[in-house]
């Protein structure tokens, strides 16, 4: 499925084309990364975006003020102002993710999420990136590493909609199910 098939994807694609045309794509990507981080860290900003009790004009005023304060590009400011004006600010996270995914796809990057039972060091991350690169045939791998101590050992690797679960926890769960089935 193409990123542009959803409403948020169409917004993201339109912005991508404008940013590319104006030759400020990397600056817009930086703005989006900053905004994504702000949304993740600020409950009040997330609530502002999601709340149906706050009017479109209040949301628009607030998002414009925030983006101006963080010195976002004028295109970014206008884009989110339009999104708010159209009552679509609720889609902000999807638009950000779709936009960043579109940029990654066009740049030939593959995003991979790795979950392990402990924090991977730099050398281990390099080995994981090399293995993913070899398996997918892509040279540019963007790795997101997470820790879940309940895995006991092994790794869970997610690339797009595909997941490889080689964790000890899953293996033990499968063994337990198999043993229950034989009784």
Question: Would you give an account of this structure?
Answer:
There is one protein chain. The protein is of the alpha+beta class. The chain folds into 2 domains: 3-105, Orthogonal Bundle (Peroxidase, domain 1); 108-181, no CATH class. The chain contains 8 helices and 4 strands. The protein has helices at 7-21, 25-41, 43-50, 56-69, 74-85, 92-106, 122-136, 168-181; strands at residues 109-116, 140-147, 155-159, 162-165. A 4-stranded mixed β-sheet has the order 2-1-3-4. The radius of gyration is 20 Å and the shape is globular. The N and C termini lie far apart (44 Å).
List the defining traits of the structure above:
183 residues, alpha+beta, Peroxidase, domain 1, 2 domains, 4-stranded mixed beta sheet, 8 helices, 4 strands
Nutshell version of this structure?
The protein is α+β, with helices and mostly antiparallel strands and 183 residues long.
Blueprint of the fold:
Layout: H1 7-21, H2 25-41, H3 43-50, H4 56-69, H5 74-85, H6 92-106, E1 109-116, H7 122-136, E2 140-147, E3 155-159, E4 162-165, H8 168-181
Parallel strand pairs: 1-2
Antiparallel strand pairs: 1-3, 3-4
Helix pairs in contact: 1-5, 1-6, 2-6, 4-5
């Amino acid at each position: 499925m193409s990123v542009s098939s959803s409403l948020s994807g169409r917004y993201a694609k339109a912005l991508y084309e404008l940013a590319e045309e104006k030759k400020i794509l990397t600056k817009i990507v930086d703005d989006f990364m900053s905004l994504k981080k702000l949304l993740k860290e600020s409950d009040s900003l997330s609530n502002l975006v999601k709340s149906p009790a706050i009017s479109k004009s209040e949301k628009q005023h607030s998002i414009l003020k925030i983006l101006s304060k963080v010195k976002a590009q004028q295109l970014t400011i206008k884009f989110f102002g339009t999104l708010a004006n159209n009552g679509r600010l609720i889609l902000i996270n999807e638009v950000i993710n779709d936009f960043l995914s579109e940029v990654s796809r066009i740049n030939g990057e593959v995003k991979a999420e790795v979950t392990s039972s402990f924090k991977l060091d730099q050398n281990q991350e390099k080995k994981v990136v090399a293995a993913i690169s070899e398996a997918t045939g892509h040279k540019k791998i963007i790795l997101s590493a997470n820790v879940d101590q309940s895995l006991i050992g092994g790794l869970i690797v997610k690339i797009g909609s595909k997941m490889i679960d080689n964790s000890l926890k899953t293996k033990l769960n499968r063994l337990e199910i198999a043993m229950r089935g034989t009784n």
